[in-house]
């Protein structure tokens, strides 16, 4: 029996978990983290969209402040405008050669909204894992009538597939719990 579906499955499911991890990193927890803004798109030069991390150095001088050192001062105003237009609710202050962002503490209401957003993002990851499972099951089913492949082999492959999916679901659950704890413990 051909087991290439296992390698493919691990790769695809790993990509899903990485995607969800990166997505959860963009949620504000009331602490200043460069991940909050580094993927923010800025129209730096006529028709050229770049991420903020491609235009500046982002640091955290203290737990509530982000400092953005812009490499090309001609794009400072465009960066400020992109931050203001984002849904991050951050107010940029231009301070000589840097842009400073104060990350406010979260209210109880905002924390609950973010917990819901975490649940939605993780559930979308689970849905992606289920779709990958369906695709891999089709790969296994395609081997059903090949020479040297028995019904027991197929059932064993189904069991292995389910174990694989359960493992990745557990990783998503860990991410969800960790992020929820981070949001509610501040």
TrEMBL record:
Domain of life: Bacteria
Pfam families the record matches: RRF
InterPro entries for the chain: Ribosome_recyc_fac, Ribosome_recyc_fac_dom, RRF_sf
GO molecular function, one term: ribosomal large subunit binding
A single BP term in Gene Ontology: translation
Domain Ribosome recycling factor: 21-183
PANTHER family from the UniProt entry: MITOCHONDRIAL RIBOSOME RECYCLING FACTOR PSEUDO 1, RIBOSOME RECYCLING FACTOR
The protein's name in its UniProt record: Ribosome recycling factor
